[in-house]
């Protein structure tokens, strides 16, 4: 019988490439291999750096109309656009002036501290509500807010006087329209003005006269959100207390909150979702949590947390895919964020409060305008410049890096009508978080004047 011969199949091109590389590496000196590896690594990092510059979000500058607001007049008519107060513009102008002067009195190479100076507050509380097509959900939220704020803080004296003069016999649903709070509220900062003991000694401006403001940032809504909000303001006499700012184009929740925070006048600034999922009366808990962690410059952050609800009926009723995506995102968060932020159990609750002194260290450096803007805020708080630690006599005994964040359990319930696409937005959040973290690590984003 004739012997049979088997034909060997020629290697595929990937196999040939691997053998070629292996043979080349075996014949190349080690130092050349090392230099080649360093060159490839550098090329890879440069490619990532250029790619991040092209892909990383860059917020657009606000248009002139976005720096105005409308409200209701005491006679019930809608006001014409009014200039919106903006601490950010003044902070930016002063920062550029300091930068141009090049600090002539400070020796070369001396680290110049970021003082985070900000003009004094005019009211106690500023509430920012980002709103996109919220005509069906915003009224119950506003009712809860105004009832609580009237009782705890009262209205600014000017607004209360205008309301009384316009309708002296009109009975309000919420009973604190006289301009003073009916119940005490906790405001026990180490000193009344941000910036530490030295700044407090120099600051002779009067403290805020009390009251609150509500800034609704209309994020390019196509429904009657603005009309509904103004009707509510007219009905409850919130003249110049409730202010509506309209963005020409939709920027996303993060863009709306950042824009609103640039214009707050309060000693505290809090943002809350328009759907009212978080119980607004828990604001008192956030204030106490913030004051428990404020540093020598009165910088502090308190965030509402739903972590205590894990395992409760509110979470168990959610779909399995939603709970899976929630846990997966939290796992990614722990890997990609710096230590203090990674330990926060709930970064996405739409109920967060900031002391006024903390704002200049966070708001000017925001880039993300999507769903993960909360995480960037927390990362910026963690990386904020050091502030002096003061002894009881006012002397400096050390320094404290970063702004402390208090995680405060709040009541929360599911509300229908969410505009979040569960799967698509979850993937976008994970990708956005990776881009955000890489941009800050590689210097694409920096703490610099925009």
From TrEMBL:
<feature type="compositionally biased region" description="Polar residues">
    <location>
        <begin position="65"/>
        <end position="79"/>
    </location>
</feature>
<keyword id="KW-0256">Endoplasmic reticulum</keyword>
<keyword id="KW-0808">Transferase</keyword>
<protein>
    <recommendedName>
        <fullName>dolichyl-phosphate beta-glucosyltransferase</fullName>
        <ecNumber>2.4.1.117</ecNumber>
    </recommendedName>
</protein>
<keyword id="KW-0812">Transmembrane</keyword>
<feature type="domain" description="Glycosyltransferase 2-like">
    <location>
        <begin position="210"/>
        <end position="292"/>
    </location>
</feature>
<feature type="region of interest" description="Disordered">
    <location>
        <begin position="159"/>
        <end position="181"/>
    </location>
</feature>
<dbReference type="InterPro" id="IPR001173">
    <property type="entry name" value="Glyco_trans_2-like"/>
</dbReference>
<comment type="similarity">
    <text>Belongs to the glycosyltransferase 2 family.</text>
</comment>
<keyword id="KW-0472">Membrane</keyword>
<dbReference type="InterPro" id="IPR029044">
    <property type="entry name" value="Nucleotide-diphossugar_trans"/>
</dbReference>
<keyword id="KW-1133">Transmembrane helix</keyword>
<keyword id="KW-0328">Glycosyltransferase</keyword>
<feature type="transmembrane region" description="Helical">
    <location>
        <begin position="32"/>
        <end position="56"/>
    </location>
</feature>
<feature type="compositionally biased region" description="Low complexity">
    <location>
        <begin position="159"/>
        <end position="168"/>
    </location>
</feature>
<feature type="region of interest" description="Disordered">
    <location>
        <begin position="60"/>
        <end position="79"/>
    </location>
</feature>
<dbReference type="InterPro" id="IPR035518">
    <property type="entry name" value="DPG_synthase"/>
</dbReference>
<dbReference type="GO" id="GO:0004581">
    <property type="term" value="F:dolichyl-phosphate beta-glucosyltransferase activity"/>
</dbReference>
<comment type="pathway">
    <text>Protein modification; protein glycosylation.</text>
</comment>
<dbReference type="GO" id="GO:0005789">
    <property type="term" value="C:endoplasmic reticulum membrane"/>
</dbReference>
<dbReference type="GO" id="GO:0006487">
    <property type="term" value="P:protein N-linked glycosylation"/>
</dbReference>
<keyword id="KW-0735">Signal-anchor</keyword>
<dbReference type="Pfam" id="PF00535">
    <property type="entry name" value="Glycos_transf_2"/>
</dbReference>
């Amino acid at each position: 019988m004739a012997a049979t011969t088997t034909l060997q199949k020629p290697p595929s091109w990937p196999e040939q490439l691997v053998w070629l590389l292996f043979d080349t590496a075996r014949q190349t000196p080690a130092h050349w291999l090392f230099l080649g590896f360093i060159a490839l690594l550098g090329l890879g990092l440069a490619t990532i750096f250029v790619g991040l510059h092209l892909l990383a979000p860059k917020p657009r500058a606000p248009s002139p109309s976005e720096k105005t607001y409308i409200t209701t007049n005491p006679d019930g008519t809608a006001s014409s656009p009014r200039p919106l107060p903006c601490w950010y513009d003044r902070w930016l102008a002063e920062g550029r002036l300091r930068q141009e002067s090049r600090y002539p009195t400070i020796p070369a190479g001396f680290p110049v501290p970021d003082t985070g100076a900000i003009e004094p507050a005019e009211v106690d509380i500023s509430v920012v509500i980002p709103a996109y097509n919220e005509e069906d959900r915003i009224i119950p939220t506003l009712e809860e807010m105004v009832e609580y704020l009237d009782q705890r803080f009262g209205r600014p004296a000017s607004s209360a006087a205008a309301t009384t003069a316009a309708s002296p016999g009109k009975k309000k649903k919420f009973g604190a329209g006289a301009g003073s709070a009916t119940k005490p509220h906790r405001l026990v900062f180490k000193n009344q003005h941000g910036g530490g003991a030295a700044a407090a000694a120099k600051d002779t401006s009067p403290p805020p006269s009390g009251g609150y403001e509500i800034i609704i940032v209309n994020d390019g809504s196509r429904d009657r959100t603005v009309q509904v909000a103004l009707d509510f303001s007219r009905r409850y006499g919130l003249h110049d207390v409730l202010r509506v700012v309209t963005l020409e184009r939709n920027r996303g929740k993060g863009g709306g909150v950042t824009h609103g925070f640039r214009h707050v006048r309060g000693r505290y600034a809090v943002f809350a979702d328009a759907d009212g999922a978080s119980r607004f009366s828990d604001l008192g808990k956030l204030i106490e949590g913030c004051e428990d962690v404020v540093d020598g410059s009165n910088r502090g952050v308190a965030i509402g947390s739903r972590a205590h609800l894990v395992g409760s009926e509110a979470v168990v009723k959610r779909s399995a895919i939603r709970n899976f995506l929630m846990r997966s995102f939290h796992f990614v968060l722990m890997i990609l964020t710096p230590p203090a932020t990674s330990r926060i159990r709930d970064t996405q609750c739409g109920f967060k409060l900031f002391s006024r002194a903390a704002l200049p260290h966070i708001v000017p450096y925001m880039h993300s305008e999507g769903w993960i803007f909360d995480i960037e805020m927390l990362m910026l708080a963690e990386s904020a410049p050091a502030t002096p630690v003061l002894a009881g006599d006012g002397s400096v005994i050390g320094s404290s890096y970063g702004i402390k964040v208090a995680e405060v359990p709040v009541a929360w319930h599911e509300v229908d009508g969410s505009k979040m696409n569960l799967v698509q937005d979850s993937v976008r959040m994970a990708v956005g978080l990776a881009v955000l973290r890489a941009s800050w690590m590689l210097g694409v984003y920096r703490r610099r004047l925009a």
